[in-house]
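Handout, tutorial session.
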Amino acid sequence: MKNKRLLTMILAVLTMVMFTFAGCGGSAEDSADNGNAAAANEYGLEDGTYVVTFTTDNNMFHINEAYNDQAIMTVEGGEMTVHVTLQSKKIVNLFYGLAEDAQKDGAELIEPTTDTVTYSDGYTDEVYGFDVPVPAIDEEFDLALLGTKGKWYDHKVKVSNPVPGDEIPVAGAESDGDAADAAAEPVAADLADGEYSVNVAMEGGSGKASITSPAKYVVENGKGTLTVEWSSENYDYMLVDGEKFLPVNTEGNSVFEIPVATPDAPFTVVGDTTAMSQPHEIEYTLTLSMAK
């Protein structure tokens, strides 16, 4: 009789323990989902779409230059997912976690979508995009990538600054006001021979790239030469009046020395960038003014 009562008590305790664990969230997958939902609620983000800033720890892995580090994040059922449009098709898979885990059996890789990007100059390009789960806002998390050569790389990424919206403006050129300010005090066409410091205002392109300003401007025998340093290492040549100029450096951001026939008026140049999936010539208008 005593043994029967003891057995009944043991069964009752086991039943209570089972119900307790069941009420704590069940599977690990359910726990992860609930955690993500709780994270979205923590930031006061209701279901909907948001324009966010997506940054990484490497300048070779980033949002397409047309979108200026911005992406669209969707919150649904409290879960946050960001769609990142990259610069080319050179990254073929992503993995939410570390590279070593991405290579294990059963790892769930993030497959690419094909995104069409239209730049401010009208050029369109097809690149890869990915839907990435977001565990938190303003906190780095692990995101591994697989390149076309079959090697995985670890990276840290971060999503920040969520603003309600569903459209990313294509990065544009500097404002007309900036160019007008630069043109207010143009470089004289008949400067004496010597070295000068000039402001460089640039219009055109996607707005992602820029030129260092002030820049060096040298006049020799009445002819002017402008030193152009881009904010990128991906410019492999420039065209001025149809003539090709190559970089004068081999490391760091691309630097060119180009002739300037009319320093007192805006002039057109072409820069060829390899930052996209294919090399692309982009037309820019430069306006010079004397630096103070």
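The second record follows below. Compare its token runs with those of the first.
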Amino acid sequence: MAVKNVAIKTKPDAIRHAQSDGGIGVYLKRIFALMFGAVAVTALTSWLTIFTPLGGILVTAHGSLSAMYYVLLFGGLALSIWAQARAFSFKPSTGALLLFLYAIIIGIVISPMLLYVSVSNPMSIPMAFGIAAAMFACMALFGYKTVKNLSFLGIFLFMGMIGLVLVGLASLIWPVIVSGTFGTIVSIIGVLVFALFTAYDMQTLKNAYAMGGDDTRKNQLAVLGALQLYISFVALFQYILDLFNRN
């Protein structure tokens, strides 16, 4: 669970210059290398949590989620907000370390869900991952290529994301609210919101690169972009996996 900061500022005319600069290819490679590196760290962390005694810190003797689980859950949420708000005050290397720290926390936090699904419906995990990857790739390409200004989506996506986070937090207290039809609707909305966020973020990052700046700022942008795209990808995966396991 995380909140994305959508406040990167760009000028509309800058988009025309983004693709003409050959350096944008290196910039995008850096973003996706960091992002998929974070996804790999999350996958490894989840595996280690499930198949080693590390998972024991997440549940109590009665089988409920432990206090440590909630510390990690809310700590990860706070870290994602803080890292995005302070992205341009960190060295790029510090930002990358925070990204991977966040990826580790998310790997631990989602492991109970993955453990449950691995027992009840194991094939849904690779299926959900494959669909999430395909959707992410298509929406990222659309966001990069489209000439339509997607900035109007920002406020709606942010409001949708806040609504999803609030529902997620409420479900920790009243799990019944995400059962049945309402839970299915929430997951569908989650898929739509984070698929559109992927396109929105890609266009915003491309425009931000076109604004120029020194290498440090571009590296900071790359880390921020990797974090935002990572959040979208992981959220897509979680909501799709939930749709596969509603029963």
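Points raised in discussion: The mean pLDDT is 87.
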